[in-house]
């Protein structure tokens, strides 16, 4: 029987053998931990304060609800695609099968914003909490090594250092990295739950009134437009769940475990975010939360200042796991693109002993460390959000199109409600993108323009002359 005589469902069922070089060691619990580790990071420990102080006020809880709904709609689409096409590459691979090579390149290039820049953003937040702990112990870095240019320094050395250290851990193998991640996630969640539990006993409900502060005359400055602007900003807090989809190619039973990992991680993180937002704005007046460590400030408001140390440690753990999983995801994206000959073969090199894409991981780590060392966190955070939302729109569209063009495919998990969920996911992402500032759109346009220039100057020619991967076998030249 030739490959062309196989139906599409049978070809997808054999997709796990399409990438035999990557070790399949991850379970459903590992995926949930990866999802929690990658989402519970800078969004909850850093951006919550900024979003409450400048955009949503106590309505930050509603912003997280909106962000959670949008993420849930997209997450269901990811679950179907990850179960149907369990390979490395996530939305890049889905776009390759659905829309073709050019769209796949655009998504892959866009995902650099989601993963590599997310890792850099989180690492800068990590540096802030690490330096705060060092100051508590009486240590202080020289100003030149403590912050990026434009923020009073020359290079953010701690941010670059944590990226490089985690890169070494990831190169050494998934099993060890997964265990470290699971332990850190457990500690991080325990500290967050302790914050919520202690904070509930000291709430000042009057701080929640009005829940939606009146608009101050411009879009996004409180009012309901501020709720939506806040949702667009804190959406950064949800983006990590896509890392689970990038890990499908290294999962023992991806058809079953990928949906469990994506949906389970989204449920846990959404509940944590809403609870933390409620406690945070119920302990401190929202205008006072524009600080780098809002949760530590909230604990100070309870009078239990000794617990602030535990909160800083929890933040450090949270930011560590989020950086780890973002670096992991970016390397898998580049690995998949190199296997499709859109990038040099170097990015597809797999270590013979550790069975990890070591070359891609190393280069991503070095580049991300440089970005983390030299760029401020505010610019990075907005770029991550808008880049991710664009990729999410294409994922939802992929579900709609593949349902129509490949109805015979075996789908171990199907998004409920037919086309309703994917369409709502697209609309939700468009609404959140529309709420972001205009200069963020300009940066996205410039980033995509650079990506298109690379594609037409290099990627298209190389891809056209290269072999297709097994997941594309028989799908035609998209």
UniProtKB/TrEMBL annotation:
- List where the protein spans the membrane: 26-48, 60-81, 102-126, 155-173, 180-201, 221-241, 262-284, 304-329, 358-377, 383-403, 415-434, 440-459
GO MF assignments: amino acid transmembrane transporter activity
Q: Which domain of life is it from?
A: Bacteria
Cite the entry's keywords alphabetically: Membrane, Transmembrane, Transmembrane helix, Transport
**Subcellular location per the Swiss-Prot or TrEMBL entry:** Membrane
Signal peptide location: none
One GO CC term on file: membrane
Q: By its UniProt entry, which Gene3D superfamilies does this protein fall under?
A: Amino acid/polyamine transporter I
What is the protein's name according to its record? Basic amino acid/polyamine antiporter, APA family
Species source reads Methylorubrum salsuginis
The organism's taxonomy opens as: Bacteria, Pseudomonadati, Pseudomonadota, Alphaproteobacteria, Hyphomicrobiales
């Amino acid at each position: 029987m030739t490959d062309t005589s196989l139906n599409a469902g049978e070809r997808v069922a054999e997709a796990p053998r399409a990438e035999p070089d990557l070790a399949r060691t991850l379970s459903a619990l590992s995926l949930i931990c990866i999802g929690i580790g990658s989402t519970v990071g800078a969004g909850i420990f850093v951006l919550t304060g900024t979003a409450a102080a400048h955009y949503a006020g106590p309505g930050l809880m509603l912003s997280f609800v909106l962000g959670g709904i949008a993420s849930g709609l997209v997450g269901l689409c990811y679950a179907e695609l990850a179960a149907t096409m369990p390979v490395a590459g996530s939305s890049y691979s889905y776009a390759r099968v659905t829309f073709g090579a050019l769209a796949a390149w655009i998504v892959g290039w866009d995902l650099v914003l989601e993963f590599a820049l997310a890792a850099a953003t989180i690492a800068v937040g990590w540096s802030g909490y690490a330096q705060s702990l060092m100051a508590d112990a009486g240590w202080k870095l020289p100003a030149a090594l403590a912050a990026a240019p434009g923020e009073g320094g020359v290079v953010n050395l701690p941010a670059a250092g944590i990226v490089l250290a985690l890169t070494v851990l990831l190169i050494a193998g998934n099993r060890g990295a997964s265990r470290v991640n699971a332990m850190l996630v457990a500690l991080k969640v325990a500290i967050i739950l302790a914050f919520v539990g202690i904070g509930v006993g000291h709430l000042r409900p009057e701080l929640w009134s009005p829940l939606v502060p009146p608009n101050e005359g411009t879009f996004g400055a409180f009012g309901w437009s501020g709720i939506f602007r806040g949702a667009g900003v804190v959406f950064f807090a949800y983006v990590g769940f896509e890392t689970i989809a990038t890990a499908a190619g290294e999962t023992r039973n991806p058809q079953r475990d990928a949906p469990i990992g994506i949906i389970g991680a989204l449920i846990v993180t959404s509940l944590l975010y809403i609870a933390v937002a409620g406690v945070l704005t119920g302990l401190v007046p929202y205008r006072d939360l524009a600080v780098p460590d809002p949760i530590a400030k909230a604990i100070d408001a309870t009078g239990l200042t000794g617990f602030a140390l535990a909160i800083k440690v929890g933040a450090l753990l949270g930011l560590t796991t989020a950086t780890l999983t973002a670096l992991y995801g970016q390397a898998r994206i580049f690995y998949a693109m190199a296997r499709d000959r859109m990038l040099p073969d170097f990015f597809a090199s797999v270590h013979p002993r550790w069975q990890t894409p070591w070359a891609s991981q190393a280069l991503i780590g070095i580049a991300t460390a440089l970005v983390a060392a030299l760029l401020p966190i505010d610019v990075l955070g907005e770029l991550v959000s808008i880049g991710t939302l664009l990729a999410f729109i294409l994922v939802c569209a992929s579900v709609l199109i593949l349902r129509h063009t490949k109805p015979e495919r075996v789908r171990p998990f199907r998004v409920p409600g037919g086309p309703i969920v994917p369409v709502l996911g697209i609309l939700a992402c468009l609404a959140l993108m529309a709420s972001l500032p205009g200069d963020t759109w300009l940066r996205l346009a410039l980033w995509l323009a650079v990506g298109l220039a690379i594609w037409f100057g290099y990627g298209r020619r190389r891809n056209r002359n290269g072999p297709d991967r097994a997941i594309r076998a028989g799908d035609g030249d998209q």
